[in-house]
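hey so i finaly got around to running the thing on Glycosyl transferase from Sphaerisporangium rufum. pasting the sequence first so u can double check i didnt mess up the copy paste, my clipboard has been acting weird all day
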Amino acid sequence: MRGHRLCQSGGVRILHVSDCYLPRLGGIEVQVADLVRSQSAAGHQVEVATATPGGRVAGVHRIVARLPFDLPVHPRGGRHLLRLMAARRPDVVHVHTGAVSPFAWMGVRAAVRAGLPVVVTVHSMWDPVTRLLYRVLDAVTGWSRWRVVATAVSHAAAVPVRAVTRERVPVDVVSNGLDVSAWRPVAGAPPAARPEGPGGTEGPGGAAGPGEQVHIVAVGRLAPRKQPVRLLRLLLAARRRVPRHIGMRATLVGDGPARGAMERFLRANRMEGWVSLPGRYSRERIREVLDSADVFVAPAPRESFGIAALEARAAGVPVVARTQSGVADFVRPGEEGLLGRTFDELVAAVARLATDRALRERVARHNRDTEPARCAWPAVLDGFDRAYRLAAARVAPAVRVARDRKG
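ok and heres what it spat out for the C-alpha coordinates, dont ask me to read them lol
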Protein backbone atom coordinates (compact mmCIF):
# COMPACT_ATOMS: atom_id res chain seq x y z
CA MET A 1 0.00 0.00 0.00
CA ARG A 2 1.13 3.54 -0.73
CA GLY A 3 0.77 4.70 2.89
CA HIS A 4 2.67 1.62 4.11
CA ARG A 5 5.58 2.32 1.79
CA LEU A 6 5.88 5.88 3.08
CA CYS A 7 6.15 4.58 6.64
CA GLN A 8 9.07 2.31 5.83
CA SER A 9 12.77 3.08 5.60
CA GLY A 10 13.05 1.79 2.02
CA GLY A 11 13.03 3.89 -1.13
CA VAL A 12 9.99 6.02 -1.93
CA ARG A 13 8.77 6.98 -5.40
CA ILE A 14 8.73 10.80 -5.41
CA LEU A 15 7.52 13.05 -8.20
CA HIS A 16 8.60 16.69 -7.87
CA VAL A 17 6.52 19.26 -9.76
CA SER A 18 8.00 22.70 -10.37
CA ASP A 19 7.31 25.44 -12.92
CA CYS A 20 11.03 26.16 -13.13
CA TYR A 21 13.91 23.70 -13.24
CA LEU A 22 17.35 23.31 -14.75
CA PRO A 23 18.80 24.49 -17.10
CA ARG A 24 17.22 27.70 -15.75
CA LEU A 25 19.26 28.99 -12.83
CA GLY A 26 17.57 30.49 -9.80
CA GLY A 27 16.90 29.81 -6.15
CA ILE A 28 14.04 27.33 -6.64
CA GLU A 29 15.61 25.63 -9.66
CA VAL A 30 18.93 24.95 -7.94
CA GLN A 31 17.34 23.98 -4.64
CA VAL A 32 14.98 21.45 -6.26
CA ALA A 33 17.84 19.97 -8.29
CA ASP A 34 19.96 19.58 -5.12
CA LEU A 35 17.00 18.00 -3.32
CA VAL A 36 16.54 15.52 -6.17
CA ARG A 37 20.22 14.54 -6.00
CA SER A 38 20.15 14.16 -2.21
CA GLN A 39 16.98 12.04 -2.22
CA SER A 40 18.33 9.86 -5.01
CA ALA A 41 21.55 9.33 -3.05
CA ALA A 42 19.40 8.34 -0.05
CA GLY A 43 17.84 5.51 -2.08
CA HIS A 44 14.58 7.08 -3.25
CA GLN A 45 13.24 6.88 -6.81
CA VAL A 46 12.93 10.52 -7.81
CA GLU A 47 11.53 12.16 -10.93
CA VAL A 48 10.69 15.74 -11.92
CA ALA A 49 7.86 17.25 -13.94
CA THR A 50 8.48 20.81 -15.14
CA ALA A 51 7.25 23.35 -17.66
CA THR A 52 10.81 24.59 -18.28
CA PRO A 53 12.23 23.81 -21.74
CA GLY A 54 15.58 22.05 -21.93
CA GLY A 55 17.45 19.00 -23.12
CA ARG A 56 16.52 15.39 -22.45
CA VAL A 57 17.57 14.29 -18.95
CA ALA A 58 16.74 10.95 -17.38
CA GLY A 59 13.92 11.29 -14.88
CA VAL A 60 12.92 14.80 -16.01
CA HIS A 61 9.55 15.12 -17.76
CA ARG A 62 9.26 18.44 -19.62
CA ILE A 63 5.64 19.44 -20.22
CA VAL A 64 6.31 22.42 -22.44
CA ALA A 65 4.14 24.69 -24.57
CA ARG A 66 5.46 27.16 -27.13
CA LEU A 67 4.92 30.45 -25.36
CA PRO A 68 6.65 33.84 -25.60
CA PHE A 69 9.86 34.16 -23.57
CA ASP A 70 9.78 30.39 -22.81
CA LEU A 71 7.32 31.01 -19.97
CA PRO A 72 7.15 27.92 -17.70
CA VAL A 73 3.40 27.46 -18.12
CA HIS A 74 1.26 24.97 -20.06
CA PRO A 75 -2.41 25.68 -20.77
CA ARG A 76 -3.27 21.96 -20.50
CA GLY A 77 -0.64 21.10 -17.93
CA GLY A 78 -3.12 19.53 -15.52
CA ARG A 79 -4.20 16.94 -18.09
CA HIS A 80 -0.61 16.01 -18.92
CA LEU A 81 0.34 15.79 -15.24
CA LEU A 82 -2.63 13.56 -14.46
CA ARG A 83 -1.56 11.15 -17.22
CA LEU A 84 2.04 11.23 -15.99
CA MET A 85 0.98 10.44 -12.42
CA ALA A 86 -1.18 7.54 -13.62
CA ALA A 87 1.74 6.15 -15.59
CA ARG A 88 4.51 6.67 -13.00
CA ARG A 89 2.41 5.91 -9.88
CA PRO A 90 4.47 7.94 -7.37
CA ASP A 91 4.06 7.36 -3.65
CA VAL A 92 4.02 11.13 -3.06
CA VAL A 93 3.85 14.25 -5.20
CA HIS A 94 6.06 17.10 -3.95
CA VAL A 95 5.07 20.44 -5.48
CA HIS A 96 7.30 23.54 -5.36
CA THR A 97 5.69 26.98 -5.56
CA GLY A 98 6.89 30.55 -5.64
CA ALA A 99 4.61 33.53 -5.23
CA VAL A 100 2.45 32.56 -8.21
CA SER A 101 3.12 29.19 -9.86
CA PRO A 102 0.33 28.12 -12.25
CA PHE A 103 1.96 24.89 -13.41
CA ALA A 104 2.81 23.84 -9.86
CA TRP A 105 -0.79 24.34 -8.73
CA MET A 106 -1.96 22.30 -11.71
CA GLY A 107 0.23 19.58 -10.22
CA VAL A 108 -1.47 19.95 -6.83
CA ARG A 109 -4.91 19.66 -8.44
CA ALA A 110 -3.88 16.66 -10.55
CA ALA A 111 -2.38 14.82 -7.56
CA VAL A 112 -5.51 15.44 -5.47
CA ARG A 113 -7.70 14.11 -8.28
CA ALA A 114 -5.45 11.05 -8.51
CA GLY A 115 -5.79 10.42 -4.76
CA LEU A 116 -2.04 10.82 -4.16
CA PRO A 117 -0.36 12.28 -1.05
CA VAL A 118 0.68 15.87 -1.78
CA VAL A 119 3.29 18.08 -0.11
CA VAL A 120 3.46 21.72 -1.22
CA THR A 121 6.66 23.62 -0.43
CA VAL A 122 6.37 27.41 -0.48
CA HIS A 123 9.72 28.92 -1.47
CA SER A 124 8.68 32.58 -1.39
CA MET A 125 7.33 35.16 1.03
CA TRP A 126 3.64 35.79 0.30
CA ASP A 127 3.10 39.55 0.27
CA PRO A 128 -0.36 41.12 0.84
CA VAL A 129 -1.29 40.94 -2.86
CA THR A 130 -0.28 37.27 -3.07
CA ARG A 131 -2.20 36.44 0.09
CA LEU A 132 -5.30 38.07 -1.36
CA LEU A 133 -4.89 36.08 -4.57
CA TYR A 134 -4.68 32.78 -2.69
CA ARG A 135 -7.71 33.68 -0.57
CA VAL A 136 -9.71 34.35 -3.74
CA LEU A 137 -8.54 31.06 -5.26
CA ASP A 138 -9.49 29.28 -2.06
CA ALA A 139 -12.97 30.78 -2.18
CA VAL A 140 -13.35 29.54 -5.77
CA THR A 141 -11.64 26.13 -5.59
CA GLY A 142 -11.54 25.27 -1.87
CA TRP A 143 -7.88 24.26 -2.19
CA SER A 144 -7.21 24.60 1.55
CA ARG A 145 -9.56 21.61 2.09
CA TRP A 146 -7.73 19.30 -0.33
CA ARG A 147 -5.93 17.30 2.42
CA VAL A 148 -2.53 18.56 1.30
CA VAL A 149 0.43 19.21 3.60
CA ALA A 150 2.49 22.38 3.27
CA THR A 151 6.04 23.27 4.21
CA ALA A 152 7.73 26.66 4.12
CA VAL A 153 11.46 27.29 3.86
CA SER A 154 11.56 29.49 6.98
CA HIS A 155 9.44 30.59 9.92
CA ALA A 156 9.03 34.01 8.28
CA ALA A 157 7.70 32.40 5.10
CA ALA A 158 5.36 30.13 7.07
CA VAL A 159 3.51 33.01 8.78
CA PRO A 160 1.58 34.32 5.71
CA VAL A 161 0.81 30.77 4.53
CA ARG A 162 -0.77 29.95 7.89
CA ALA A 163 -2.68 33.23 7.78
CA VAL A 164 -4.27 32.22 4.46
CA THR A 165 -5.01 28.57 5.27
CA ARG A 166 -6.28 29.34 8.83
CA GLU A 167 -5.01 25.99 10.17
CA ARG A 168 -6.93 23.94 7.57
CA VAL A 169 -3.56 22.91 6.10
CA PRO A 170 -0.68 21.70 8.30
CA VAL A 171 2.27 24.04 7.67
CA ASP A 172 5.70 22.88 8.86
CA VAL A 173 9.07 24.58 8.41
CA VAL A 174 11.66 22.59 6.48
CA SER A 175 14.78 24.58 5.72
CA ASN A 176 16.41 24.81 2.34
CA GLY A 177 19.29 22.39 2.14
CA LEU A 178 23.01 23.03 1.78
CA ASP A 179 26.04 20.80 1.46
CA VAL A 180 27.57 22.51 4.47
CA SER A 181 30.92 20.76 4.18
CA ALA A 182 31.46 22.21 0.70
CA TRP A 183 31.39 25.74 2.13
CA ARG A 184 33.41 25.18 5.29
CA PRO A 185 36.85 26.85 5.47
CA VAL A 186 39.76 24.47 5.00
CA ALA A 187 40.70 23.00 8.40
CA GLY A 188 43.85 24.57 9.80
CA ALA A 189 44.08 27.21 7.10
CA PRO A 190 44.76 30.75 8.32
CA PRO A 191 42.18 33.45 7.58
CA ALA A 192 42.52 35.01 4.15
CA ALA A 193 44.89 37.95 4.03
CA ARG A 194 43.28 41.36 4.44
CA PRO A 195 44.81 44.17 2.40
CA GLU A 196 46.24 46.75 4.78
CA GLY A 197 48.09 49.97 4.44
CA PRO A 198 51.14 50.98 6.45
CA GLY A 199 50.70 50.53 10.17
CA GLY A 200 47.63 48.33 9.86
CA THR A 201 47.30 47.05 13.41
CA GLU A 202 44.51 46.34 15.82
CA GLY A 203 43.49 49.40 17.83
CA PRO A 204 42.64 49.66 21.51
CA GLY A 205 39.98 47.26 22.77
CA GLY A 206 39.92 45.28 19.52
CA ALA A 207 38.91 48.22 17.33
CA ALA A 208 40.12 48.31 13.76
CA GLY A 209 43.60 49.72 13.41
CA PRO A 210 44.91 52.32 10.95
CA GLY A 211 45.12 51.09 7.37
CA GLU A 212 42.84 48.09 7.80
CA GLN A 213 40.48 47.30 4.94
CA VAL A 214 37.12 45.61 5.46
CA HIS A 215 35.67 43.56 2.60
CA ILE A 216 31.85 43.51 2.39
CA VAL A 217 30.16 40.96 0.11
CA ALA A 218 26.61 40.43 -1.16
CA VAL A 219 25.42 37.74 -3.59
CA GLY A 220 22.10 37.63 -5.40
CA ARG A 221 20.09 38.45 -8.47
CA LEU A 222 20.09 42.16 -9.27
CA ALA A 223 16.31 42.37 -9.54
CA PRO A 224 14.17 45.32 -8.38
CA ARG A 225 12.30 43.19 -5.83
CA LYS A 226 15.65 42.52 -4.11
CA GLN A 227 16.17 46.30 -3.79
CA PRO A 228 19.84 46.30 -4.92
CA VAL A 229 19.98 50.11 -5.26
CA ARG A 230 18.87 50.31 -1.63
CA LEU A 231 21.84 48.06 -0.82
CA LEU A 232 24.12 50.67 -2.40
CA ARG A 233 22.48 53.37 -0.30
CA LEU A 234 23.13 51.20 2.76
CA LEU A 235 26.81 50.85 1.88
CA LEU A 236 27.13 54.58 1.27
CA ALA A 237 25.50 55.39 4.62
CA ALA A 238 27.73 52.86 6.41
CA ARG A 239 30.85 54.31 4.75
CA ARG A 240 29.93 57.72 6.18
CA ARG A 241 29.71 56.24 9.69
CA VAL A 242 32.99 54.33 9.55
CA PRO A 243 36.15 56.29 10.41
CA ARG A 244 38.15 57.20 7.33
CA HIS A 245 41.26 55.36 8.49
CA ILE A 246 39.34 52.09 7.95
CA GLY A 247 39.21 51.16 4.30
CA MET A 248 36.05 49.64 2.88
CA ARG A 249 35.51 47.74 -0.33
CA ALA A 250 32.40 45.89 -1.47
CA THR A 251 31.85 43.10 -4.00
CA LEU A 252 28.24 42.61 -5.12
CA VAL A 253 28.05 39.35 -7.07
CA GLY A 254 25.15 38.78 -9.44
CA ASP A 255 23.39 40.12 -12.50
CA GLY A 256 19.93 41.20 -13.49
CA PRO A 257 17.70 44.00 -14.78
CA ALA A 258 18.63 46.44 -11.97
CA ARG A 259 22.31 46.48 -12.93
CA GLY A 260 21.97 49.65 -15.02
CA ALA A 261 20.33 51.57 -12.18
CA MET A 262 23.07 50.38 -9.82
CA GLU A 263 25.84 51.52 -12.17
CA ARG A 264 24.23 54.95 -12.46
CA PHE A 265 24.01 55.21 -8.67
CA LEU A 266 27.69 54.26 -8.30
CA ARG A 267 28.75 56.91 -10.81
CA ALA A 268 26.53 59.59 -9.29
CA ASN A 269 27.96 58.96 -5.82
CA ARG A 270 31.56 58.29 -6.90
CA MET A 271 31.55 54.79 -5.45
CA GLU A 272 33.16 52.94 -8.40
CA GLY A 273 36.54 53.00 -6.65
CA TRP A 274 35.42 50.78 -3.78
CA VAL A 275 32.25 48.98 -4.95
CA SER A 276 32.46 46.42 -7.76
CA LEU A 277 29.74 44.61 -9.73
CA PRO A 278 31.61 41.63 -11.22
CA GLY A 279 28.48 39.89 -12.56
CA ARG A 280 27.29 36.34 -12.05
CA TYR A 281 29.75 33.88 -10.53
CA SER A 282 29.85 30.11 -10.30
CA ARG A 283 29.62 28.49 -6.88
CA GLU A 284 33.37 27.91 -6.95
CA ARG A 285 34.11 31.60 -7.57
CA ILE A 286 31.62 32.64 -4.88
CA ARG A 287 33.51 30.44 -2.41
CA GLU A 288 36.71 32.25 -3.39
CA VAL A 289 35.10 35.64 -2.76
CA LEU A 290 33.80 34.50 0.63
CA ASP A 291 37.34 33.44 1.59
CA SER A 292 38.33 37.12 1.64
CA ALA A 293 35.04 38.49 3.01
CA ASP A 294 34.74 40.16 6.42
CA VAL A 295 31.00 40.85 6.31
CA PHE A 296 28.12 39.46 4.23
CA VAL A 297 25.04 41.63 3.71
CA ALA A 298 21.54 40.30 2.85
CA PRO A 299 19.31 43.36 3.28
CA ALA A 300 16.17 42.34 1.33
CA PRO A 301 13.14 42.70 3.66
CA ARG A 302 11.11 39.94 2.01
CA GLU A 303 13.82 37.26 1.80
CA SER A 304 12.00 33.97 2.33
CA PHE A 305 15.21 32.09 3.13
CA GLY A 306 18.52 33.47 1.88
CA ILE A 307 20.60 30.58 0.55
CA ALA A 308 23.51 32.94 -0.28
CA ALA A 309 23.52 34.17 3.33
CA LEU A 310 23.55 30.56 4.54
CA GLU A 311 26.54 29.82 2.29
CA ALA A 312 28.36 32.81 3.78
CA ARG A 313 27.49 31.74 7.33
CA ALA A 314 28.77 28.21 6.58
CA ALA A 315 31.96 29.74 5.15
CA GLY A 316 32.56 31.54 8.46
CA VAL A 317 31.52 35.05 7.43
CA PRO A 318 29.46 37.28 9.79
CA VAL A 319 26.06 38.02 8.24
CA VAL A 320 23.97 41.21 8.38
CA ALA A 321 20.29 40.73 7.49
CA ARG A 322 16.73 41.72 8.25
CA THR A 323 15.15 40.57 11.49
CA GLN A 324 11.89 39.80 9.66
CA SER A 325 13.48 37.73 6.88
CA GLY A 326 14.09 34.00 6.63
CA VAL A 327 17.80 34.59 7.32
CA ALA A 328 16.85 35.02 11.00
CA ASP A 329 16.30 31.24 11.16
CA PHE A 330 20.06 30.64 11.05
CA VAL A 331 21.53 34.00 12.12
CA ARG A 332 21.12 35.11 15.73
CA PRO A 333 22.10 38.64 16.78
CA GLY A 334 25.63 38.67 18.17
CA GLU A 335 26.14 34.97 17.37
CA GLU A 336 26.26 34.37 13.61
CA GLY A 337 25.95 38.04 12.70
CA LEU A 338 23.76 41.07 13.33
CA LEU A 339 20.10 41.66 12.47
CA GLY A 340 18.20 44.89 11.90
CA ARG A 341 14.50 45.62 11.45
CA THR A 342 14.94 48.96 9.69
CA PHE A 343 17.28 50.44 7.13
CA ASP A 344 19.03 52.53 9.79
CA GLU A 345 19.56 49.47 11.97
CA LEU A 346 21.15 47.63 9.04
CA VAL A 347 23.44 50.59 8.39
CA ALA A 348 24.43 50.59 12.06
CA ALA A 349 25.09 46.82 11.96
CA VAL A 350 27.39 47.07 8.93
CA ALA A 351 29.23 50.05 10.45
CA ARG A 352 29.61 48.24 13.78
CA LEU A 353 31.13 45.12 12.20
CA ALA A 354 33.40 47.23 9.99
CA THR A 355 34.64 49.15 13.03
CA ASP A 356 34.77 46.43 15.70
CA ARG A 357 37.41 43.93 14.61
CA ALA A 358 37.11 41.91 17.83
CA LEU A 359 33.37 41.38 17.29
CA ARG A 360 33.96 40.47 13.65
CA GLU A 361 36.57 37.88 14.53
CA ARG A 362 34.49 36.41 17.36
CA VAL A 363 31.47 35.94 15.09
CA ALA A 364 33.64 34.56 12.29
CA ARG A 365 35.26 32.09 14.67
CA HIS A 366 31.83 30.94 15.91
CA ASN A 367 30.61 30.47 12.32
CA ARG A 368 33.73 28.49 11.41
CA ASP A 369 33.47 26.27 14.49
CA THR A 370 29.71 25.51 14.42
CA GLU A 371 27.69 24.09 11.57
CA PRO A 372 24.09 25.13 10.73
CA ALA A 373 22.92 21.56 11.31
CA ARG A 374 19.23 22.12 10.62
CA CYS A 375 20.12 23.31 7.11
CA ALA A 376 22.31 20.30 6.28
CA TRP A 377 20.78 17.77 3.92
CA PRO A 378 20.26 14.94 6.48
CA ALA A 379 18.03 17.24 8.57
CA VAL A 380 16.21 18.53 5.49
CA LEU A 381 15.52 15.01 4.20
CA ASP A 382 14.20 13.98 7.62
CA GLY A 383 11.86 16.98 7.57
CA PHE A 384 10.45 16.06 4.18
CA ASP A 385 10.11 12.41 5.18
CA ARG A 386 7.88 13.54 8.06
CA ALA A 387 5.84 15.69 5.70
CA TYR A 388 5.42 12.77 3.27
CA ARG A 389 4.16 10.47 6.03
CA LEU A 390 1.72 13.11 7.23
CA ALA A 391 0.46 13.65 3.67
CA ALA A 392 -0.09 9.90 3.29
CA ALA A 393 -1.98 9.76 6.59
CA ARG A 394 -4.22 12.67 5.54
CA VAL A 395 -5.12 11.17 2.18
CA ALA A 396 -5.65 7.59 3.45
CA PRO A 397 -9.21 8.09 4.85
CA ALA A 398 -10.39 9.59 1.57
CA VAL A 399 -8.87 6.68 -0.36
CA ARG A 400 -10.63 4.17 1.89
CA VAL A 401 -13.98 5.96 1.42
CA ALA A 402 -13.52 5.90 -2.36
CA ARG A 403 -12.72 2.16 -2.27
CA ASP A 404 -15.77 1.46 -0.11
CA ARG A 405 -18.00 3.31 -2.55
CA LYS A 406 -16.61 1.36 -5.47
CA GLY A 407 -17.13 -1.86 -3.50
